[in-house]
Amino acid sequence: MIHALLRYKSFVFDKNPAEITFKGEKLLSTEHIPFSGSFLRENGAKPKIIKSSGSFSGENRLNRSLEIQKLFDKGGEGMLFLSDLPPVNAVMSSLSVYEKSRSTDIFYDIEFYEVPAEKGEIGEKYITAREGDSLWSISAKYDIDIEKLLELNPLCIDPWDVSEGGKIRIS
After folding, report:
1. pTM higher than 0.85, yes or no?
2. How many helices (H) and strands (E) does the chain have?
């Protein structure tokens, strides 16, 4: 059940979409062992695809649909917040906005494509700091406790001072 409103970058939806689909897929391969047979190996995961469908209603419906179109046109990745799930760094990869006969609502179908964090050693994940980032903002964006983030990045002395382009370990 979705409690908090869906949010992408700075855009907060007036109401939650009527439908959200969250698709994850594993990368699999079959390994053959001579004289022993074969086994299935997991080689990580493909980026997740999140689809949502809903509508804008009320007097503000046209403005809201134009705002989401501008956000799509601007491009770039941003954080997607889906209530009770961890935030996902994603790109809005597809947007359809349309009207239906006998309805005053403006409908939308949106597809988001996950932008995976960079990987270092096995199990480690890194992100690249952007202009204006701090460990505090990264902590909130990735839902990581600030103490844990400081522990993972011992060379970062001041959580407010993160160099743009610097690698920040997030797991």
Report:
1. no
2. 3, 12
